[in-house]
């Protein structure tokens, strides 16, 4: 897998509104993928804080790309469960969304996501996910 292949998966497998988030593939390793979610007025709520809906859409997208990386190719899947905890507001900086595959079996995959400030490195949101592999 390469960053270019992960980036190419965004328009290939995700809806136009997900693509409008402006996500870019930043890094990957054997178990994880990191995307950058750029700060923008369209994704900010009162006070300039990144809205939770945008964070969770980015988290879900990053996890699908982590599964692409894990399997070496896109495998149809659907989110079964996502549990999130918002730790602090994120404002005035891009977000880094790191999705890690914890376990991927024949029918289910499990992962965790950390969303942190790109400048300060502080976690703003943590999520755990379960996906059905179709």
From TrEMBL:
Question: Taking every annotated instance into account, which residue ranges of this chain make up the domain Thioesterase?
Answer: 52-122
Q: Which Pfam families match?
A: 4HBT
| InterPro entries found in the cross-reference section | ACOT13, HotDog_dom_sf, PAAI_dom, Thioestr_dom
Q: Does the keyword Hydrolase apply?
A: yes
Question: A Gene Ontology MF term for this entry?
Answer: fatty acyl-CoA hydrolase activity
Q: Which UniProt keywords apply?
A: Hydrolase
Query: What family classification does the UniProt entry report for this protein?
Result: Belongs to the thioesterase PaaI family.
- Alphabetical list of NCBIfam families matching this protein: unchar_dom_1 (TIGR00369)
- Record PANTHER family: ACYL-COENZYME A THIOESTERASE 13, THIOESTERASE SUPERFAMILY MEMBER-RELATED
Q: What is the official name of this protein in its record?
A: Hotdog fold thioesterase
């Amino acid at each position: 897998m390469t960053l270019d292949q992960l980036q190419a998966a965004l328009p290939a497998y995700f809806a136009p509104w997900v693509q409008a988030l402006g996500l870019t593939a930043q890094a990957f390793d054997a178990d994880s993928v990191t995307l950058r979610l750029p700060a923008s007025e369209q994704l900010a709520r009162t006070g300039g804080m990144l809205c939770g809906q945008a964070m969770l859409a980015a988290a879900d997208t990053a996890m699908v790309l982590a599964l692409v990386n894990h399997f070496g190719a896109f495998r149809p899947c659907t989110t079964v469960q996502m549990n999130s905890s918002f730790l602090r507001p994120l404002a005035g900086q891009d977000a880094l969304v790191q999705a890690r595959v914890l376990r991927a079996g024949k029918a289910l995959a499990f992962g965790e996501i950390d969303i942190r400030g790109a400048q300060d490195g502080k976690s703003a949101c943590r999520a755990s996910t379960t996906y059905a592999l179709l």
